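Entry for the shared binder. Reason: the reviewer on the internal report wants the predicted structure included alongside the sequence.
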Amino acid sequence: MNFNHERLIIDQEPCKVIFSSEPYPVLLKTGLTVVADVIVNKNRSKSERSLIISPLSLAKPLVMRIGENSNKLIGIEVWIYKSGPDKMSAYVVED
């Protein structure tokens, strides 16, 4: 169980992502986690990356959007960024 693409690291700079896969499990050193593939629109370039979606501050807003998207993650388009510089800062998800 590996990432399909290079892992996307989110920081305080907003980036626009479009989910291109449904969630899938990945085994990390810390245990099993949930990942989805995204198309990233950042700095006027597009790339495919894998995004860990298990943090609660990221998962909760996505679950709400999944319900509004025929129970699918694929096709959901959002802006994501961290609320602060700390590793443990919450994610912010906006339309």
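Summary line for the report: The longest strand covers residues 31-42.
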